[in-house]
Design goal:
The protein is mainly alpha-helical. The protein has a domain of 86 residues. The protein is built from four helices and four strands. β3 and β4 form a beta hairpin. The structure holds zinc ion (ZN) (2 copies). One zinc ion (ZN) binds next to loops.
C-alpha cells in the first residue's frame, strides 16, 4: 500500500484551519455572557475576563466571553463604588465588606463608571450613552498624555 500523504500539512495551513473552526464555533454557539447576544461581524463576542480560564467544550461555545461594550458594562457592575470602601486587613484593594463587590488596587471612579452602573444588568450601552462615554474617555486619555508629557519633561527627556 502506498502512502499518499507523506508531506505533513504545513503549519500555516493547520493554524488557518483551527482559526476558521474557532471562528465558526464562535459564530454558531458563542453568546455574550452579559447580554446573551450573538457574535456578529463588527460586533464580535471575543472579550474574555479570564486571564487563563478553563476552555469550554467545543460543542458548547466558549464561556466567559463578552461583546466589547458589554465587557465594559459588566466590569463596572462588578466594581465597588462605595465612597468609603471597607476592605479586610486594611488593604486598599479586594472585596468590599459593605457592598460585596471588588475594588481593584488604586482604582478610581468617575462619570463613566457611574453612567455604566446605572444600566440594568444584561443591557447594552445605548448609542446616546456611547457618545457621552467617548467624551469622558477622550478627556481621560488627554489627561494621561499630559501627565506623561509632564513626567517626561521633569526627567529631562
Ligand atoms: Zn453583549
Ligand atoms: Zn463597596
Amino acid at each position: 500500500m502506498q502512502l499518499r500523504f507523506k508531506v505533513p500539512v504545513p503549519m500555516v495551513g493547520w493554524k488557518l484551519q483551527v482559526h476558521l473552526a474557532q471562528a465558526l464555533r464562535r459564530w454558531a454557539l458563542t453568546r455574550c455572557a452579559w447580554c446573551g447576544g450573538r457574535s456578529v461581524k463588527g460586533d464580535p463576542v471575543n472579550v474574555s475576563h479570564q486571564w487563563d480560564g478553563p476552555r469550554g467544550r467545543w460543542w458548547r461555545g466558549e464561556p466567559g466571553l463578552f461583546h466589547h461594550d458589554c465587557s465594559t458594562v459588566e466590569h463596572a457592575h462588578r466594581m465597588c463604588l462605595c465612597a468609603v470602601p471597607v476592605i479586610a486587613y486594611g488593604r486598599d484593594y479586594g472585596t468590599c465588606l459593605v457592598c460585596g463587590k471588588f475594588r481593584a488596587w488604586r482604582q478610581t471612579f468617575g462619570a463613566a463608571e457611574r453612567l455604566l452602573v446605572g444600566l440594568p444588568a444584561g443591557s447594552r450601552i445605548p448609542p446616546g450613552m456611547k457618545a457621552k462615554l467617548d467624551v469622558i474617555y477622550g478627556a481621560r486619555r488627554a489627561a494621561k498624555r499630559a501627565a506623561e508629557a509632564k513626567a517626561g519633561e521633569e526627567s529631562g527627556e
